[in-house]
Write a structure and sequence with these properties.
mainly beta; 4-stranded antiparallel sheet
Length: 363
C-alpha cells in the first residue's frame, strides 16, 4: 500500500482527486503494485514517479515497474493521458518501439523525468528549457523517452541519480560525477553555465558514492568510512560555509531546496542550511530509522516506528497543525497517524514546490 499527502493541484498524489490533503490518503495504483518489495519515489513540480521493484516470477517477467501520476501535458509521465489523478503504468516505449524494461533508477526535475535502465541506458522525457533533458544543445522537449547518447562512458555504470528543479547528477561506478541542466550557480562545476548534455564535474577530490541536489547546489559524499564530502554551487543559505569538516559514519543523505541533511549510523539526524520555516532538525528529535527531505520540510520514521514531520507545511505536507497565522511546523514536529507498519518514506526528491509525501506500508 502507498499513502500520500500534501500538494495535489495536478493530481500528483494519485488519490483520485486534485485537492491538497494534510492526512495520509491511499494512492490509487494497479493491482500489480501489491507485489512491490521496494519502492522509490521521485517527483517534479506537478508529477510523481513510483519505481516499484519485485522479484520476477519468470525469466521473461519485469523486475521493476514504473507508475506515474499528475501533469503529463508534455509526456513527462510516459503515458498517453494529459493529466492523471491515479497512478498508471508508465508506457516507456522508445520511439514506439520495444518497451523500456527494468528501470533501476529514476529522478525528476520540475517538468522532466529521467530513467536509468539496468543496462545503464539513460532516457529523459518532458520539458527542459535549460538543459534538463540532457539531450543536446537547445533540445527542450521530449514527449516520449529519448536516449541520452554516449552516456555513461564505456566500462562504467550509474550507481546513483539525483535531480532538483533544474539539474541532474549521476554518480558512476568509478567515482566520477556527471551533471546536466541549469549550472549557472556552479552546481555542475566550471564553467558555470547551462549544460545541455552530461558533463563531468571536475575537482571533487575523492571517489563519490552518493549525491543529492538542492535548488542551486549539489552535495557529493564519499564512503561513510572516509567521511569525505563537498558542496558545489550557491552558498546562499551557508550550505558550503557551515558544513562539518567530516561526516564519517553517515547512513543516508538528503537535501531540501536550501539545506542538507545527514542520518548517522547512530540514528542522529543533523542538518545545516536554510531554516526560515523551521526545516532543520528540531532539538531533542528522537533517534531516526530513515528519513527524506522535501522542498523545505522533512519526514522521518523513528526507531520506535513513529512518523514525524516538520518544516514548511503550507499545503498539508507536514500534517496538522501548523503555526497560528502561518504555515510552518517549526521548533517541533507533528506525529503523522497511520495504520500499519511504515516500510519507507519519500518526499518527492526535492523538486516539488509543495512537496508530495509517500509512505510505503506493510499491512
Amino acid at each position: 500500500m502507498l499513502l500520500a499527502f500534501g500538494s495535489n493541484g495536478s493530481g500528483q498524489l494519485g488519490i483520485r482527486h486534485e485537492d491538497d490533503v494534510s492526512a495520509p490518503q491511499t494512492c490509487a495504483l494497479p493491482p500489480s503494485f501489491e507485489a512491490a518489495a521496494h519502492v522509490h519515489i521521485a517527483a517534479g513540480g506537478n508529477h510523481t514517479l513510483v519505481l516499484a521493484r519485485s522479484k520476477p516470477c519468470s525469466p521473461d517477467a519485469l523486475s521493476s515497474v514504473m507508475y506515474a501520476s499528475g501533469d503529463n501535458s508534455d509526456g513527462r509521465c510516459g503515458n498517453s493521458s494529459r493529466r492523471l489523478n491515479t497512478f498508471r503504468h508508465a508506457d516507456l516505449r522508445i520511439n514506439n518501439g520495444a518497451p523500456l524494461y527494468d528501470v533501476k533508477l529514476c529522478s525528476a526535475t520540475w517538468e522532466a523525468s529521467i530513467f536509468v535502465t539496468t543496462e545503464d541506458a539513460v532516457f529523459s522525457c518532458g520539458t527542459g528549457l535549460k538543459g534538463e533533458l540532457g539531450l543536446g544543445k537547445e533540445v527542450t522537449q521530449a514527449t516520449s523517452p529519448q536516449l541520452i547518447i554516449n552516456f555513461p562512458p564505456k566500462d562504467t555504470r550509474i550507481v546513483d541519480l539525483a535531480s532538483s528543479m533544474g539539474h541532474t547528477v549521476a554518480v558512476l561506478s568509478n567515482g566520477d560525477v556527471y551533471g546536466w541542466g541549469q549550472g549557472r550557480k556552479g552546481q555542475l562545476g566550471h564553467p558555470a553555465e547551462i549544460c545541455w548534455e552530461p558533463r563531468k564535474i571536475d575537482g571533487i577530490g575523492f571517489k563519490a558514492v552518493r549525491a543529492v541536489c538542492g535548488k542551486d547546489f549539489v552535495y557529493v559524499v564519499g564512503t561513510p568510512e572516509e567521511g569525505t564530502h563537498t558542496v558545489l554551487g550557491s552558498d546562499k543559505w551557508f550550505v558550503r560555509s557551515t558544513a562539518p569538516e567530516s561526516i564519517a559514519g553517515w547512513k543516508s543523505i538528503s537535501a531540501s531546496w536550501g539545506g542538507i541533511y545527514l542520518l548517522l549510523e547512530s540514528g542522529k539526524l543533523i542538518g545545516w542550511g536554510r531554516n526560515d520555516h523551521g526545516q532543520l532538525p528540531p532539538a531533542n528529535i528522537p533517534l531516526i530509522e530513515y528519513f527524506a527531505a522535501g522542498s523545505e520540510h522533512v519526514l522521518v520514521r523513528t526507531k520506535t516506528g513513529k512518523i514525524l514531520a516538520w518544516g514548511w507545511g503550507e499545503h498539508g505536507n507536514c500534517g496538522a497543525p501548523t503555526a497560528a497565522g502561518g504555515d510552518d511546523v517549526a521548533d517541533r514536529w507533528n506525529e503523522i497517524e497511520v495504520e500499519g507498519v511504515v516500510m519507507g518514506v519519500a518526499q518527492s526528491s526535492l523538486t516539488t514546490y509543495e512537496a508530495v509525501v509517500g509512505l510505503h506500508l506493510d499491512t
